[in-house]
Sequence to fold (542 residues):
Amino acid sequence: MTDTTEATLAEICIVALAEAFRGDGEVLCNPMGAVPVIAGRLARATFEPDLMLTDTIAYAIEGNLPLGGDPSDAVVESYMPFRTIFDQVWSGKRHVVMGAPQIDRYGNQNFAAIGDDYRKPKAQLLGMRGAPGNLINHATTYWIPTQARSFVESVDVVSGPGNDTVASLPEATGRFHEIRRVVTDLGAYDFEAGDGTMRVRSLHPGVTLEQAQEASAFELTVSGEVPESRLPTDEERHLIREVFDPNGVRNGEFH
Amino acid sequence: MADKRMTEDEVVAELESGMTIGIGGWGSRRKPMSLVRAILRSDLTGLHIVSYGGPDVGILTAAGKCRKVTYGFVSLDSIPLEPHFRSVRQGGLLPDFMELDEGAFYLGLMAAAHRVPFYPTRAGLGSAMLSENPELRTVTSPYGDGEELVAIPAFDMDAVLLHMNRADAKGNGQFLGPDIYFDDLFAMAGAKTYMSAEKIIPTEDFLREGPVHTLKIPRTHVDGVVEAPMGAHFTECPPDYERDEAFQLEYAATAKDPEAWAQFRADWLELESHDAYRAKLVERGQA
Fold:
């Protein structure tokens, strides 16, 4: 029997992230982390059927694999070892979802290191990983479970360049740069205002503009009436709860 | 045909302090750990390690063996941040490092393998990868577009260490897991390349182990072969074995406590040989 209880915050975030893939067509959808992975699989199972997804190891797989499910149960449609992933990055046919312990008004992201001195940081985080190459080559979306901690005045180190940074580079350099969406525990944001700043696209049910602004060290851009983030449909709720994440891993990302 | 078999200690005897040493694998996956431990118990120092970093980088930096590390990340995979490496970085204990985009890192290996000074990429433009690494240069396309790109320099390495699932005594190597990572490029990029393997087998048995596409390390690029069953432990080496998560947790926990770290090194990492390490794993009931 389908669980019809009210959508949880994690499920609303999953739907908002899935919406970031709408219109992508035939690209490699490469989400990192439980909530983004569910979102990518959900988008493909519903409104974006041509997306390509991996088992998070080295295979591109068909069908609706549950989170942590055995990939040997899935149909393999292509081989995606890391080298092919990088080739795919540079070819542009990819949309990645990454985290952002720090992000600023123009979408500059830092997950490399925290502190004033990059040579001796207060906290060493992931390092550059794939951020520099991802941002300058194809669409990127960020998933931020705690907006109040991550929306900063300025980032300590730029691992993923934002819109103002890229605007200062030669035009040819930035031609593939696109920060598609930022999804947080409070709402969804885009950069469609025209000035490169982060704009409130929707707020999750019960969240006010004042609360969202309070949980940000920079001024959020608002244009017109801000809609409420959409709730999962019955089908989406079923897919999230029964198919992709029966163990509720999605609820563990908020802390 | 040369028989290239040697021991871990014989490999380390060919290395020198100050060398640039590449280490294959990825994070906590198929790392040549028996060779890393042989370096740890040697008197080598001042090394420059080039690696898709995992416990190899954590162990060698925490033990003060490194003057520099070139990396895209240092991770234990199931533990996203390598805790020993974090302590070293946060303590300012690593004299020098170059942190690159992980795709750009692949180009540094490829440039060295192909003996060209650099490969161009867009990765790094606009990010701290360029501003924090002033030795990185850009190039302008000589064609009509005139686009500016980052020139990732060739990672010239004095020696490279790898771990494969199978090898023959002549130095051909075979990976049987899901991903070779960049080990074939590492092998070609090293002035000398030393390859450990779970098992050394007769050449004619390779195709019984896996399809021809798994034979990715040709002997032309391999100088020494070490038979090291469980040689990647505690990192994963599928299909031979998965990561030893319990062991990795113990290793990671010692980053918080210098005494526990010294004890762990003595108990496990500084044992006199890989045979002694394996015997101890058997005692523990894990091999």
Notes: The radius of gyration of chain A is 18 Å. The first strand of chain A starts at residue 28 and ends at 31.
